[in-house]
Amino acid sequence: MTTAFTDKSGPFTHAPTSVQSTMTTVLAALVPATLFDAWLFGWPAIFLFVVTIGSCLLIEAACLSMARKPLQPALTDGSVVLTGWLLAMSLPPWAPWWVAVIAALFAVALAKHVFGGLGQNVFNPAMVGRVAVLVSFPVQMTAFVAPHPLFSAGAPGFLDSLRITFGSGTLDSMTAATALGHIKTELSRGIPVGTSIQQVPDLLDMALGVHGGSLGETSALLILAGGAYLLWKRIISWHIPVAMIGTLFVLGTLFHAVSPDRFTGGLFHVTSGATFLGAFFIATDYVTSPVSKQGQLVYGIGCGLLTWIIRTFAGYPEGVAFAVLLMNALTPIIDQHVRPRVFGRTRKGDPLPIKGGK
Amino acid sequence: MATDYRTIVRDGLWDNNGVLAQLLGMCPTMAMTTSATNGFGMGVATAVVMAASNLLVATFRGYITQEVRIPVYILIVAAMVTLVDLTMNAWMHELYKVLGLFIPLIVSNCLPLGRLEVFAAKEPVLPSLMDGLFMGIGFTLALTAIGAVREIIGSGTLFADASLLLGPAFKFLEMKVSPLDSGVLVMILPPGGFLAAGFMVVGKRLLDLRAGKAIATGPAGHCV
Amino acid sequence: MTTQPTWLHAAVLGAFCTGFGAILALTDVLTADAIAARALEDKQNSLAQVIPPGLHDNNPVTDAITLTGEHGKPLTVYRATKGGKVTGVAYEILGSGYAGEIRLMLGVDAEGRVLGVRATQHKETPGLGDKIDPAKGDWITRFSGLSLDLPPKDKWKVKKDGGQFDQFSGATITPRGVVGAVREGLAFFASHRPQMVEVR
Questions:
Q1: Are B185 and C8 inside 8 Å of each other by CB?
Q2: Is B68 domain-assigned?
Q3: Does B76 touch chain C if contact means CB atoms closer than 8 Å?
Q4: Where are the domains of chain A?
Q5: Within a domain: B127
Q6: What is the 3-state secondary structure of chain A?
Q7: A83-138, pLDDT tens digit by residue?
Q8: What are the chain B neighbours of C127 within 8 Å (beta carbons)?
Q9: How would residue A1 be classed by pLDDT, with cut points 50, 70 and 90?
Q10: What is the ipTM for the molecules in this complex?
Q11: Count of domains in chain B?
Q12: Do C12 and B75 make contact, defined as CB atoms within 8 angstroms?
């Protein structure tokens, strides 16, 4: 940097972190899981990934130029790449390209720029994008494929993959319901959880990620490792992930103990779906989560509770995205109520009495 | 006060449009604009009720005392709505089957009540009738436009089932815009209503800004 | 402005209420017959979709009997008769869909074959589960001519459950609900056939 004045922060502050370095660390934490998923689902997943991030960047550029803001800083700080990355990880790996483009439009243009751009958005952009396409294209968004590892027999070749992502590849024969989806459908026709859980991958496979699902839903352990790396780098604090996963685990275990036929167990809840991705990478978004530590605990518990409620009782099998969005809406209220005490004042904002003075 | 009918027409259709400027009547706007036809039907039914109740209130305004005016207004709007509901059910049944669901909703729309309080209670009969009519037409236009946007994006059609509402002669209006079977469903679900209405309000203000007009911020919608 | 006495407000409000009440009462009297006639026509039209008009010389809407349906609820059965013999019946069946219950009208002929099925009320997802609507697809017409033994009982399911009925892409729960409801509706006919076809 040639002049200190181009920096957006006050020239008198110096912090080792910036938006750019934070984003780079988060992206680095996502790399192992992403590489694994790319291997697991092959070329279509890679194409989808590129299309999603590319369209997020394009839309960001378009929005910035419409608002007559400088393009370069916002495009290179990595925040929009992260949005696109998380969005891509929440889509089914073999979704067609236009689902990704529309999701990116909802995420970047509607959820971020309508509210005023980076730092102003109320809702997590990636999750708005995912929920918008989930509600809009139930067929495409619930067509999960069984893993077809790259270069393995039966995996689509490069050209076939282009057709899957950009053409009209109907894949009915290749679909495999997610574990959460399978249990929900079976329950709806009266098959108890105890029976249907036999038909889904066991916990070890779930954790390793060799099963159908969104890109980021599969490799739970690698996501967990990425999350641990973020904790170690102090990009995120433990409050939100622990509160969210803990709540989910406790509720799952408790209700499973009461009625094992109706409710799935705690460990299953934790390892399945987007729990880890949501808890470490999505719910912890600085902009849309509470500031104070107590607030983050409340927020994390809320995310876990809502995820469990949606998974167990609502129409959709997976609830992390909805839960995070709902808690995003509550974030200002949480911040309002668990405001940290200002130095030298009581919680109500009155000056502290001076000790010894009269 | 000399009555300026040009202003009344302009206010109703654009400048002080019930939906796009006053942000009144949001309940039917959100609920009934899943297609252009639905929006149009709701708008027309509302316009009829608005014209009739404005006319009645302006006629009787000398007899309505200040303290009981609100109950009387609501009584008049509700009576008009019921009248339209019963008459259409009996003698315009095909139309009623399409619109029947919406008509009782007009009572919950505060645009008619707002115009009674703001306009008809103070102005002579003919201007009041014109105000109710053109506010109603403006409401219809806004609802049709929002419905069209939601329908095109959400279902890939435009004016679907228009022939049910308007008669077989209007079959030509029914269009299939998108080659796909369905569209971006979120637009015909409730969030789409907020998105479409929001962008319409933005669009109106942009056009007003371009035209060099100061943005008139109408009264905020205090009721649904 | 001088303050007006309370009785004046009461009188004004009372006068308006009486006036408009009278107008509404008059309108009701004038329209009641027409509305009743329209409601009857609607019912006839919807019944005509599940009972072909050539099958009867009576009016099934008025020729209805009430049986005790499942869960002890009264069930109205509309009967089509020709020359004094019952040729078909229609009654409402309920299926559980993706978003609440699906109400269907099922028409069955005297031998227990399906004459027609129509969804009368449902809240299924637009573009997905609402393909049971005849306006949106011909899926619902495939039941015509089927009976409890055709296909055999273990094939009265959607394909996903090992039966013979297609589900729509992306929606299994809606067709499963409808197929199940029709199957149970036919079973109800089988167990209540004597009451349904007996001639009064």
A1: no
A2: yes
A3: yes
A4: 18-336
A5: yes
A6: CCCHHHCCCCCCCCCCCCHHHHHHHHHHHHHHHHHHHHHHHHHHHHHHHHHHHHHHHHHHHHHHHHCCCCHHHHHHCCHHHHHHHHHHHCCCCCCCHHHHHHHHHHHHHHHHHCCCCCCCCCCCHHHHHHHHHHHHCHHHHCCCECCCCCCCCCCCCHHHHHHHHHCCCCCHHHECCCHHHHHHHHHHCCCCHHHHHHHCCCHHHHHHCCCCCCHHHHCHHHHHHHHHHHHHCCCCCCHHHHHHHHHHHHHHHHHHHHCCCCCCCHHHHHHCCCHHHHHHHHCCCCCCCCCCHHHHHHHHHHHHHHHHHHHHHCCCCCCHHHHHHHHHHHHHHHHHHCCCCCCCECCCCCECCCCCCC
A7: 999 999 888 888 888 899 999 999 999 999 988 888 888 999 999 999 999 888 87
A8: 155, 181-183, 185
A9: very low
A10: 0.78
A11: 1
A12: no
